[in-house]
TrEMBL record:
<keyword id="KW-1133">Transmembrane helix</keyword>
<feature type="transmembrane region" description="Helical">
    <location>
        <begin position="72"/>
        <end position="93"/>
    </location>
</feature>
<feature type="region of interest" description="Disordered">
    <location>
        <begin position="137"/>
        <end position="189"/>
    </location>
</feature>
<feature type="compositionally biased region" description="Polar residues">
    <location>
        <begin position="145"/>
        <end position="163"/>
    </location>
</feature>
<feature type="transmembrane region" description="Helical">
    <location>
        <begin position="42"/>
        <end position="60"/>
    </location>
</feature>
<feature type="transmembrane region" description="Helical">
    <location>
        <begin position="197"/>
        <end position="219"/>
    </location>
</feature>
<feature type="domain" description="Calcineurin-like phosphoesterase">
    <location>
        <begin position="244"/>
        <end position="406"/>
    </location>
</feature>
<protein>
    <submittedName>
        <fullName>Metallophosphoesterase</fullName>
    </submittedName>
</protein>
<keyword id="KW-0378">Hydrolase</keyword>
<keyword id="KW-0479">Metal-binding</keyword>
<dbReference type="Pfam" id="PF00149">
    <property type="entry name" value="Metallophos"/>
</dbReference>
<dbReference type="InterPro" id="IPR004843">
    <property type="entry name" value="Calcineurin-like_PHP"/>
</dbReference>
<keyword id="KW-0472">Membrane</keyword>
<dbReference type="InterPro" id="IPR051158">
    <property type="entry name" value="Metallophosphoesterase_sf"/>
</dbReference>
<dbReference type="InterPro" id="IPR029052">
    <property type="entry name" value="Metallo-depent_PP-like"/>
</dbReference>
<keyword id="KW-0812">Transmembrane</keyword>
Amino acid sequence: MAAVVFALVALVVLALLGAVHRYVWRRFVGDTTAPGSRLRRAGTVAAFVLPLLSVGAMTSGRMGAPFWLQQVLAWPGFLWLACLLYLTLALLVGEVVRPVLLRVLARRDAARAGAKTGTASGTLPETAPETLAAVPDETRPRTETLVTSGSAGVSAPSETVARTASDAPGPVVEPEAEPVEEPSAATPAPLPSRRLFVSRVVGGAAAAAGLATVGYGAYGVLRGPSVRRITVPLAKLPRAAHGFRIAVVSDIHIGPILGRAHTRRIVDTINATSPDLVAVVGDLVDGSVADLGSAAEPLAALRARHGSYFVTGNHEYFSGAEQWVDHVRELGLVPLENARVEIEGFDLAGVNDIAGETEGQGPDFGRALGDRDRGRAAVLMAHQPVVIHDAVEHGVDLQLSGHTHGGQLWPGNYLAELANPTVAGLERYGDTQLFVSRGAGAWGPPVRVGAPSDITVVELASRQA
């Protein structure tokens, strides 16, 4: 049954992607290029190749493709998904602008046509009588009506002949033939139709807006996360632990795109804050230890007075969770697999991600929190915010989570709100506070729009201080 549901969902997704690509092709290629032109052919090829690269980027890792092939497919395939999103959104805005432009241009053309018609039907101005009277008689031309010989009483057609003052007959001047313009060898190309012009303007503006958005979002990810600082008061925290600083980092997503340099930037940023403790809250990797173990090695340089701790996220269970738990332990981090340690002034607990339930390694709150002294403050590391209700039941004072990426790509934050109690920031649920990090990396497209990556220094405050 699950396989049937998965197949149906896959078909719906593929049909939707096909429809979106068809729409994008029509607006950017079909409406703006001539049939048979090179641009039309190039755009049509891209409309088939780019979605295939995206499918390859999303499936190559799960299918066990060589890591070099995953890297080759990841950059264009995942970036195209982000471009597709924002190009489509920009085109939808253009659908509102398109009829307005057409109406404005139609009115302008009608006004110009009316002005030309009025000019063409106008008459030349007549010479004013007073001006003619002012001309001397000897210089004023005279006219006579000449009658040719013929039958009596029958007048021949009259002619109006201008004579000079001396009445001397002048030579007959043949009228000059008007020159015939030869067709120019370089005939200018006809102007595009109004509809074609509007399609190109709207398409160009949509392309510029969509690609600029993706470029800026990619720059933010590749530049590295910024540092945020918040203060969280805990009622049970003793005065001695007042000001304790926890550097919270989640969703690093080391993978085919974000590699060793990305890890190094994050480690350097964390160490610069001089934290008392580092909490790595899941989704560290997107790949196996064999492919990404060296990219994670900079984590060994993390420095904190009370050490660095790690809990699994859902992506660890796609990548070999047991191997990664062993590897981070070798790098000096302490994995908290449904476990708890006592820190100066509070208990620090960690639970496995709920994705581990398929492997019999899901979260066990009883094991992590069941037998502790509830008179002490408790801080829980749990990758997904949805377990907040379990945390409330077990008397947790503060839960540290990630998973949501803050939505990562606007308007994805609205979808994230449907699946998570909190998308980003600090909120209270009963006596438990929940902090959700937006994460330090990115999954899929290395792009963030409206949800910049961050590392948050959570400073615990005692109400007794």
